[in-house]
Amino acid sequence: MNEHNKNELLDIWLTLTHFQSKINDELEQALQEQFDLSLKEFYVLNFISQTEEKKLRLQQLQDMVGLSQSAISRLVGRMEAKNCGALQRHICEDDRRGVYTCITELGEKKLQKALVTFNEVLQSALLKDGLKSELQALIQKL
User: Fold this and answer.
1) CATH number of 92's domain
2) Which GO terms describe its biological process (predicted)?
3) What is the pTM of this model?
């Protein structure tokens, strides 16, 4: 691989991470303003809601959200208190060391409302500033 290709790949990567960071910031701001949810909190509600039993072990959540064990535990603790019961913790009956987090009816309602905003902000961010054409141009460089 020649030096030009190395720099071009780096430029493509940096452009993609810039777009992702900018969109994350817009999503975070909208969710905070309208629902008092961080983006990570939104992801927690979403991941739990997607399961059949509406619950996940904290260890599963930490992998999905990308946080350490202590960080996910603090996040879930804040969500139990802050969000008026959006989540509840339960001890795993099979393994007393395991802790499940369940989404409540209130949490599910909050998620559904936040999901509308999330999709609107994401769609708007992807369509504005010629992002689609810039992404297509990046792909063509590959």
Assistant:
1) 1.10.10.10
2) response to stress
3) 0.85
How many domains, in total, are found in the chain?
A: 1
Distance of CA 57 to the CA centre of its chain: 17
- 99-103 and 55-57: which strand pairing? antiparallel
- Amino acid, res. 134: E
Report residue 110 as tokens: 């909050």
State whether residue 9 is helix, strand or coil.
helix
Longest dimension (CA), the chain: 58
CA distances from 133 to 10, 15, 79, 129, 136 (A): 19, 13, 39, 9, 5
Q: Which portions of the chain are predicted below pLDDT 50?
A: none
Instruction: Report which of 28, 57, 38 is spatially closest to residue 121, judged by C-alpha positions.
Output: 28
List the domain range (segments joined by +) for residue 43.
3-141
Q: What local confidence, expressed as pLDDT, does residue 4 receive?
A: 58
SS3 66: coil
Q: Are 120 and 34 in contact (CB under 8 A)?
A: no
